[in-house]
Design goal:
Blueprint (H helix, E strand, L loop, with lengths): L1 H22 L5 H19 L8 H27 L7 H39 L7 H16 L4 H38 L21
Length: 214
């Protein structure tokens, strides 16, 4: 299921690569990098609108478009980065470029996982404040869940424990969803903010070619 969920991104990148190859000699690679960043940021904001009721097609198209944007991003970025590197140093430069990209990805994944965990805890604490005996909605949900477990054969004591656990799970699922949305929006904002910074990079010559992308 995880593979099926991630497949649209790879399919989008697969379709974008030939188009990028055709456009490399006709367009400024920096413009392609900027377009890739902007589109990727837009797809992240599209994904930030999902909720726990989202289905497969709610994530298919954002992932597919994001895959195409990554195709626009990585090959031109390699070209711009390696433009001024002498041919005899290209091997070392490519290795360093890959090292920094992988290192950045590792740090980024760790940072995102930490933020999601902390945001989930924070949102769960906020949502839990609304679960009290004085809340009609909370009391109704608890009694409904307890009645359901009793109908399934649980005793009153066990059903009370099960209903409490069910409400706790509901809170943590919603808190995790909100945390993911917060982090996705932050990543989308970062993509958009760094778009103008691409102009700092020097435009490569028309004969420049980047290292093999992978």
């Amino acid at each position: 299921q995880a593979g099926m969920a991630m497949a649209p991104r790879g399919f989008g990148a697969f379709l974008a690569m030939p188009m990028v190859g055709l456009l490399m000699g006709k367009l400024d690679p920096r413009k392609m990098v900027m377009a890739g960043l902007a589109i990727a940021g837009g797809t992240l904001f599209m994904l930030s609108n999902i909720n726990l009721n989202a289905g497969y097609w709610d994530i298919f198209w954002p992932q597919f478009i994001q895959g195409m944007s990554l195709g626009l991003l990585f090959v031109p970025l390699s070209t711009v980065s390696m433009n001024l590197i002498p041919r005899e140093r290209m091997g070392n430069a490519t290795s360093l470029f890959s090292l920094m990209r992988n290192l950045g990805a590792g740090v980024g994944i760790a940072a995102v996982a930490t933020m999601v965990s902390r945001q989930t805890t924070a949102h769960a604490a906020i949502l839990s404040e609304h679960l009290n005996p004085y809340s009609d909605a909370a009391r109704s949900a608890f009694e409904g869940a307890r009645a359901l477990f009793i109908a399934r054969g649980s005793s009153l004591t066990v059903a009370t424990q099960q209903a409490t656990a069910a409400l706790s799970g509901m809170i943590h699922r919603q808190a995790a969803m909100v945390a993911f949305v917060d982090v996705i929006r932050l990543l989308g904002a970062i993509f958009i903010v760094v778009v103008p910074l691409v102009l700092i990079m020097r435009r490569p010559g028309r004969s420049a070619g980047g290292p093999p992308a992978h």
